[in-house]
Structure formats: C-alpha cells, structure tokens
Amino acid sequence: MASLSTASFAEKGADLELVGITKRFPGVTAIESLDLTIPAGSFFALLGPSGCGKTTTLRLVAGLEEATAGRILIGGKDVTSTKPFQRPVNTVFQSYALFPHMTILENVAFGLRRRKIGDPVAKAHEALRLVELDHLASRRPAQLSGGQQQRVALARAIVNRPALLLLDEPLGALDLKLRRQMQLELKTIQTEVGLTFLHVTHDQEEAMTMADTVAVMNKGRIEQMGAPEELYELPRTAFVANFLGQSNLFTGPVTSSTADAITVDVGGVPIVVPRTRAKRHAGEIAIGVRPEKVTLLTSAPAPQAGRNVLGPGRVTDVSFSGVSTQYLVMVPGIGELVVFAQNMVFGPVVHVGAEVWVSWNADHGFGLDDEPGDLPRFAPDASTESIAIQRRVALEEELEQA
Amino acid sequence: MTSAVPAKAFEQASFEPSPRAGRRMRLRGIGLPIYTTLALLFLLIPIAYTFVFSFNDSGKLNIAWQGFTFDKWLTVCNTQGLCEAFGNSILVGVIATVLATALGTLIAIALVRYRFRFRSSISLLLFLPMATPEVVLGAGLAAQFLTLGTEKGLLTIILAHTMFCISFVVVTVKARVASLDPALEEAGRDLCGSPSQVFWRITFPLLLPGIAAAALLSFALSFDDFIITNFNSGSVDTFPKFIYIAAARGIPAQVNVIASAVFLLAIVIVVVAQVSRTARAKRLARQLG
C-alpha cells in the first residue's frame, strides 16, 4: 500500500480507461455499460443534465461508489477493487468539503501528512501560491469567500499530484463573473501542472470553454464525444443538438440523393443537407441547423443553388440580448424556428407579426442519427427550468429515502 | 420571548380609544419588567434558598435561620454517608456517561449514515425510554434484575443509567451527524485517509460539540436521577437518594453545601466557556480585520 501511495505522487497525468462500467442503485440503473478512454494530460468534460449518470461516473472513478460491473484502469493499472485512498486520484467536491476545523494550510497539507510525504508544510504553501491564496494560509475555511474556498479545494487536491484530478461541478456555486474567471484559471493550472482533468458539469458553455474533449451524457450513456467545435457543428443526436446550444430540427423522408448531398422533404419544401454531414441517407430522417447560421429575410429570395429557404412565416417573438437578437418564426406546416441575428444595426430589424423568410447555406445543415419518431422525447431537455425540475425530483427522492 | 405573548394579548384585548393609547403603552412598559422579574425570581428562589441555607448555623433541622457560619462547608463529610453517596453519584455519572456517550454516538452515526433493514423502527424504539414514565422503567428494570438474580448495587445503577442516557445521546448526536456534509468524510477518504484516520481526524472533531453536549446531558440526567435509581440501587446510596431519605428526618445543611458547590461549579464552567468563546471570536475578527 505504501509503495502504491508513493508511486501515486505523479509527475504527469495518467490515462483513465473505463471498460463496460455499469452501476445500478436499487431500482435505477445509473450507468449502462459505459466505455470511455481519457488520454493522459487532457482536460476532459462529462456534460449532461442532472441525473444522467455523470456524477456517478466520477464517484466510481474516485472509488466512492462501487461499480456493479466493469473495470476501471488508471495508467493501465486495474483499480476497480481498490479503496479511494489507494487510487492516484483526487477530487474537487461540488461543496468544496473543506474541513472546517482546520486552517487552510492544514486542509491543503492533510493528504500529504496522511501519506507521510516529506515537507508537507512547504508543499502546501507552494500549492497555495499556485492558486494565489498563500496569504490566507492561517485562516479557517469559514472566513473565506466562495471563490477562495473553491481555490483552496483545488489546491488541496492538486498538492497530492494525483495522476487524475476529478472536478465535480466545482464552479456551480460561484456567480457568473467569478465562474468565467475560474474557468480560465483552471485551464491555466491544468496546462501548468500537466495532470489529467476529468470535469463533470451540466453547464455546456463551461464544458466547451475549458475542455479539449467533451462527452455528452444522457440517461447513463454517452451520446457523443469529441472536440467542442466538432460536437457543436455536427451533433450526432437530437439530444446533443439541443443540450449543446440550440437547434432547429426537422423530420422528413429523403426524396433524392446525389454523391454530395441528400434532399429531404420537410413539409413539402426540399431541404438539402451535405451527404458527409448526415448520419443517415435514406428513409425518414431528422435534420437540423443552428439558429445563428440562419438568416432572416423580409422578402422572398430568388431560388439559389446551395441555399435552403423556408417561408413565408410570421415572427412570433423577438428578444434582444445585447450582442444578438433571438427571433422566433412560425412557419405554417413546419413549425417554429429559432433565429439568432447579430445586432449589426441598432435594435431588432423586424418586429413581432412581420412576414419573413428564413434561409441558410445548405453546407451548414446536419443530419442526425436518431429515429425521427423518437424526437419529441428529446424536446427541450436542457433549459434551466428542466434542470431545476430534475434537481427537485432528485432531492425529493433523496428525502424519501432518508 | 414567552414574556412577549401576554403583553401582546393584553394589547389586543383592550379596545380603548386613541387618547388613552399613551397610558396603555406605559402600562406595558411597566408590566413587562415586572413579569420578567417575577418569572426569574420564581426560577431562582429555590437555588438562592439552598445557597443561603448552606451557611445556616443549624442543628439537625435546617428550616429556620439560626445564624451565619462557615462550619457546614468545612465539615461537609462529617455527616454520616453524605460524601459516600455523593462519591457514588459521581462514579455512576461518569461511568454511565462514558458508556452511553460512546455507544450512543456509534448508534447515531449508523442511523444517519447507513441504510439498513429496520432502521426506522430502531429510531423509534430508541425514543421509547425517553417517552416511558421513569417509574415504569425503574420498576421494569428492577423486575428484570430480580429475575436474573443480579444483586442490586453500583453495577445495576450504572446499567440502568447507561440505558436511559443512550436515548438522549442518540438524539443529540444524530442531529449533529445529520448536519455534517457527507462530502467532508468523502474528501477525507479521497485524500488518502484510512477509515480510522478519517474517523479520528475528520468525523470525530466535527461531531465533538454534539458529543460533548450529549455527555453533559447524560451526566446531568444520571446525577440527579432518583426514581430509577431508587428501584435498582439496593442498599447503595446516591446523592439524590440520600437527600430523599434524609428529608424524612430533616435535611442537614451539609446537603445544601454540596448542592451549592455543584451549582457553583456548573456556573464557573459556563462562564469560562463563554469567556473563552468570546475571546476566540474576537481573535478571529481581528485576524479578518
């Protein structure tokens, strides 16, 4: 055990590999045979709504929960049946979990002392300098602000130089401005110390800003995994398309296809999608386009190859948000579309009730892998409201168990 | 806060016209201090009486004031059996407190942190000794000891006290455990602590205020218990039992001395704790400033 502990004082990050991990709680399956490989030194984000299994995944890796089936490997070593303190892993908890009865310095030195690493005080000071809080070393956690506590929690974890650092929604309790600042700081620290970071969050913007690779989780499975740009520009499922930003989704049968493109009949209007950007090429399929790729026109455009046009429709809602304006456009027979337009002039260009056409470059569309029939269940699952409801449901369940 | 209730009721009950409102205000202004003073006097008179009469130069009976003396304080152990009974009470209190606090703390942690079969029924059953009349508990225990053929004495008193103290410890410590973020212990495990290290360095220090409160409560309950003790003590005397028996033929002033000493000790402990807490708060505030 001693040798394992010492060896875990890692100089650099290690790979994390999950093989067929399943976790069942009485009555619920939290994770269903999950396979995941996170390369050493990367900043990996697990993104998903509450209850999707992302926190459970994290706790399994930390050793705080036991997997029902499957194996966990860190740096090639099987750690599935080891205790949390035997794993080269440390966690930054959502509630920070700083020990209230110890000073900041003792909090940070705690892990070092338990493992009998030489010179814990100097190393703790060094970690506190990294998060720029060394001047508060003799205070108690209760005397620190939320942002400062968060940084102490980070220092307390990285001072142990774990091969893998787990972050459980660490910025969730901070206000927006502080969160932005901490996102950048976390990213800088990760580059500086070169450890593998596994970050769990339900904030899509946070995941996209910080991570090299994002895995979107839903109902215990990974829906899609890749670089943030890749996930955003080419979502594979309706869930990803709606959870990561917003999307306009349509369904219809494929009516014709060429070597480069397929044409889908959406409510009688032919919509062209590039073949390489569509996952399915025949039958009923679901396609979509991002709202900022769509242009709003006040008169019917002349038919043009390579552009999809829908309309006429009516503007049902205009909401101004500074940088851009969001329009909702109801197109009869097709449904409601969202359009983001940059505010190039002062204020909105059209008002509620105006007759408009929407158009987008055919190259910007994407085709999904879902069965179109499944679409409604994916509807807006990502709004803060639904997250709040899920939170409440989870809390109620917890209270019932207690 | 309780004193505010009658004042308010009085205000609502009177439907006087506005010119007399000023007088009503004045009435309340006098009524509240009088009420408060009376309530405090009512609470403190027995204690004051006990204290004052510990200096009474009395003979066998300590009822009428005979004159001031320190003698009773100096010859406290001269009264037959008094100091022995007091010593027994302390011994029983300490042992029962240690046992009840240790067991009760473990039970409280198990009840809050773990899910197991019959968990809620156990919680309920633990409440029963608190809810049952002491006479019933005492008589029931005495019957059991009789059936087992156990000779009544210090051992049976300690067992009886431990039993009823456990309930109070569980209730007190449980509240503290429930308010403890489980993530703290998880953080301890995560930071390379073995289970025993996590318990002694994280869980125990964080529960300590609750455990200390439970221990004080246990000791206080054990120290002044008479009913259960009387059923299960046989020939052994404890301090409350001594007073009860003495009361039949006149309580000697030495009893007042011991009672006053215990009271003074408790006051000193409270004052010291309060002063040190204030000093610590000031020190922390200075650090912050």
Label this structure with key terms:
heterodimer; A: 402 residues; alpha+beta; OB fold (Dihydrolipoamide Acetyltransferase, E2P); 2 domains; 6-stranded mixed beta sheet; 5-stranded antiparallel beta sheet; 11 helices; 20 strands; disordered N terminus; B: mainly alpha; MetI-like fold
- Helical segment count of chain B: 12
Overall domain count of chain A: 2
Largest sheet of chain A: 6 strands, mixed
CATH superfamily of the domain at 81-251 in chain B: MetI-like
Largest sheet of chain B: none
Q: State the largest interface.
A: A-B, 29 and 21 residues
The Cα radius of gyration of chain A reads 24 Å
Protein name (chain A): ABC transporter ATP-binding protein
Keywords (chain A): ATP-binding, Nucleotide-binding, Transport
Organism (chain A): Herbiconiux daphne
Domain ABC transporter (chain A): 16-244
Molecular structure report:
Chain A is α+β, with helices and mostly antiparallel strands and 402 residues long. Chain A is built from eleven helices and 20 strands. Chain A has two domains: 2-229, Rossmann fold, CATH 3.40.50; 246-367, RNA polymerase II/Efflux pump adaptor protein, barrel-sandwich hybrid domain (OB fold (Dihydrolipoamide Acetyltransferase, E2P)), CATH 2.40.50.100. In chain A, β12 (261-266) and β13 form a beta hairpin. In chain A, the strands form four sheets. Chain A has a six-stranded mixed sheet with strand order 6-7-8-3-9-10, with helices on both faces. In chain A, strands 13-12-11-14-20 form a five-stranded antiparallel sheet, with no helix packed on it. In chain A, strands 15-19-16-17-18 form a five-stranded antiparallel sheet, with no helix packed on it. Chain B is an all-alpha fold and 289 residues long. Chain B has a domain at 81-251: MetI-like (MetI-like fold). In chain B, 77% of the residues lie in helices and 0% in strands. Chain B is built from twelve helices and no strands. Chain B has helices at 4-13, 21-52, 71-74, 82-113, 119-131, 134-148, 154-178, 182-190, 195-223, 227-232, 239-249, 253-288. The chains are: A alpha+beta (402), B mainly alpha (289). Chain A binds chain B through residues 5, 62-64, 83-85, 89-91, 93-95, 97-101, 110-111, 114-115, 138-140, 143, 156, 160, 401, and chain B through 115, 181, 183-184, 186-194, 197, 201-202, 205-206, 284, 287-288. Chain A: Residues 16-244 form the ABC transporter domain. Chain A: It comes from Herbiconiux daphne.
